[in-house]
Each structure stands twice: as C-alpha cells, then as structure tokens.
Design a protein that fits this description.
Elements lengths: L13 H7 L2 H4 L1 H7 L3 H21 L4
C-alpha cells in the first residue's frame, strides 16, 4: 500500500481539508503516521496550492 500516488485512499477528504488549511493542521499526529515521508506530503501541499491558485486566477473578480 503506497501513499505516493495522486489518489490517497487513506485520506479521502484531503482535498476538502486542503482548502481550509490542510489535514496536517487538523490531524497533526495522524498525518505523521499515515505519511511518514514529508516529501510526498509536501508535494501534495504544493499541488493543492497550485490548484487553488489556478482557480483564483480563473475566477473573475467583481
């Protein structure tokens, strides 16, 4: 069972939590157990921030 892939079966609601502030803030202890290597987690955070940035840029401002 590898958590390296784009889809993480252990954390189904990671994307929803990512918009709020990341699952690491909500579950600091669990995140270290489920994601032992910080590299993959950091990559996920970067991907989420990029997606949010893209959404923000595409959204028309009023």
């Amino acid at each position: 069972m590898s958590l390296r892939g784009p889809s993480r079966p252990t954390l189904p609601s990671t994307e929803e939590q990512g918009e709020v502030g990341g699952d690491r803030d909500l579950y600091p202890e669990d995140s270290t157990k489920e994601m032992p290597d910080r590299q993959s987690h950091r990559a996920g955070q970067e991907e989420m921030s990029e997606r949010l940035h893209m959404i923000a840029t595409l959204t028309p401002r009023r």
